[in-house]
């Protein structure tokens, strides 16, 4: 037997076994490394997904576990006074905060240094859970100021205390009745640009208008006997689905009331329309004695004075509707678009027309004495136009040769020479009331004044985008009143047009209608100035009476020396 070959075979088998073991160990190590890598990648993915799902609009989250700590990292915690931890709605001990009356009229409370006013957060959502242990008196569990601030309270209606969201100038938005010793979910959405608010009590939605004022830079929780849990505040209007995820159940009552229609876009359009629209390369001509050029954007330092007739070239836009401009002398400086368009006109435009339109745009600046003189002149013109309206009608009829026309007569009447007046002449010209010819202007002026006192914001919305022949999105009585009066004004204008055609025929009638349009614009101006003058006179009389009463009361006092 060859032992040498046998030993070599054993050594070869041993080496093969070692290699197999090494490959096995290496394979297992690679597999483990792959599993670890996949796990690491998966964990990073999950972490990234979790991070991306964090709602960055969450301003504050107060778990209210017997304290006023804020769980939001960047948020500021509040402070509590005589507040104790209690069980939450799930029965978990020390997971909610209990409030109760203290000595006298004092309550246990929490103060949060958080400004939730519309100026700070135009849109905001507040959610929390609450349990009232007394329901026979008004509660104020969450408030940030007076009656016009954002707050959640209770008020009596139909014999029971009901959850309310303050609507500011529009009163309260009432919800369901407050039930004793029952955990209740409350959510409030405030949308100040659209002047709307939504109150959610458990699974029911309540909608209302809300014109809010600015509040105190802080929130006060308390002023009731009961418990509160999980106070969350978001810096935007949450969707109904997002609120449902916080509530943990479906909200299924009055859900059609929840959507808030955009009624603030017209303000953005109006702000955009205020921009000058001036572009690089535009050229203007100074239309008045001088145009002040500044040394920088929004500066009050005068760098140059461009004179009337100077050509201005826009070099570049500098942001915030300010522009770098130059004149033929090479002088460069800065001017706002508003100032440039108010004092200069584009090359190629008509200078007198520019001045006229510029003057008309400033006619309602009642702090200018010259405008009062203009209003007085308008009043005199209207007075004589109304007084001599019959002569004006005859003059227009003469121009239009309306007295000689046979256009409306039949063929037989034309042959016989008999003139038959058209059907409109049975009703026109209108003799009474005397101010008929300026009725649309007077009614429009009254509409503006009355609407401003009634609801200025809705008046603004109506004339910005709400005025339509077929009513749309009308939700308040003022909308229908404005629409009805606007319709009457349109019918009056049509009647004046028909009257002009009846009196003077097509061409002269068109001229008469143009005159009436100017008179009605004057009537609007005069009406507003007269009203302002009456108000000033009344205020002056009140101040005079007050001054005289103070004078005589002071003079009638007797001094006794002892």
Number of strand segments: 22
- Radius of gyration over C-alpha positions, nearest whole angstrom: 39 Å
Cα separation of the termini: 155 Å
- How would the global form be characterised? extended
Biggest sheet overview = 8 strands, antiparallel
Which residues form runs of ≥5 with pLDDT under 50?
Answer: 1-23, 25-54, 404-414, 416-420, 558-562
Strand-pairing-aware structural class? alpha+beta
Number of helices: 10
Mean pLDDT: 83
Helix content: 40-55%
Strand content is: 15-25%
Overall description:
Helices cover 41% and strands 22% of the residues. It contains ten helices and 22 strands. Strands 1, 3, 4, 6, 11, 12, 13 and 15 form an eight-stranded antiparallel beta sheet that branches. A hairpin with a 4-residue loop joins strand 11 and strand 12 (196-201). Residues 1-23, 25-54, 404-414, 416-420 and 558-562 have low confidence and may be disordered.
Q: How are the SSEs placed, and which strands pair?
A:
Layout: H1 3-52, E1 58-62, E2 79-81, E3 84-86, E4 96-99, E5 109-112, E6 123-132, E7 142-143, E8 151-157, E9 160-166, E10 172-177, E11 184-191, E12 196-201, E13 204-209, E14 219-222, E15 226-234, H2 240-247, H3 265-274, E16 283-286, E17 290-294, E18 302-307, E19 311-319, E20 322-326, E21 332-336, H4 337-343, E22 344-346, H5 351-360, H6 369-387, H7 389-399, H8 411-416, H9 439-466, H10 477-555
Antiparallel strand pairs: 1-15, 2-5, 3-4, 4-15, 5-14, 6-11, 6-15, 7-8, 7-14, 8-9, 9-10, 11-12, 12-13, 16-19, 16-22, 17-18, 19-20, 20-21
